[in-house]
Amino acid sequence: MARETREFTTPGGSKVVLRTYLNGREKQSIKAAVYSSMKMNVNDMKEGDVSIDQLSGSFVVEQEQKALSYLLVSVNGNMDNPVEALLDLPATEYDAVVEEINKITNPTSPESSEQLGTGPSQAA
Q: How many domains would you assign to the chain?
């Protein structure tokens, strides 16, 4: 089943098409990027001895790459390899797309989410 998409124009005029939501498998995969980079054990957690130096920062880049691969449909009409097309654009264009991706992957509240199903639920 094809997912809903939406188009937006970056500040530099690039036309970008994004899927409007992540599915469950994609969300799990993105979460796995964080959890796989954590290095702690149960005893450390019990003692409260968990520090930021036990977390590799590379997960941020991996999460971003996964989100782009899942949500980016096309860049300026390029549907064959839209992530590569995006990476060839100026960094400001890339940043604008990542900002839109973040609105989808990390909504701050249902009201401001770009995702589907954000309206009030109704009893059957």
A: 1
